[in-house]
# Entry
Amino acid sequence: MSDYKPDSYVKLGYENWQCWELYVQSTVFRKNAIVTFDPMPVDPQVQQQVIVPATVTGTMTTPSVTVNAQPMAEELKKYCEKWCAANNITKGIILGSISTELRHVVSLGDSAKEMYDKLRAEVIKQSSGSSAFGTQVELISKTSR
# Structure
């Protein structure tokens, strides 16, 4: 039987990735900040180029065209605000729940997703090899994708 309690506080070390991951994900979900694991929003000031591929209809070919696609400013602004708030909440959760032995892995300039991915890679790298824990983490990682 596991000693994990859903509301308990967990510090990430090299031996408890699964428990820590469950703690972070459940805390982020409860704080309604899960959007932070979505892609980072695009800068609304930058025009995004989309290439419309060439099409063939009957005997006529329409050449490919580059179109400047600009998301709706209001939608993008709302998404950016929501994403930034969620990112800050999640960064706080992650920074507050990693042990001192792993603090060197992340930096304050990283997004929450980058922090999470760096910590995951570091723990798997240090725990893998001949250890059963490393093998288990890798197997779970492969099946969850």
Observations:
- The longest strand covers residues 48-52.
- Helices lie at 17-30, 73-96, 112-127, 132-144.
- The longest helix spans residues 73-96.
- The chain is about 45% helix and 10% strand.
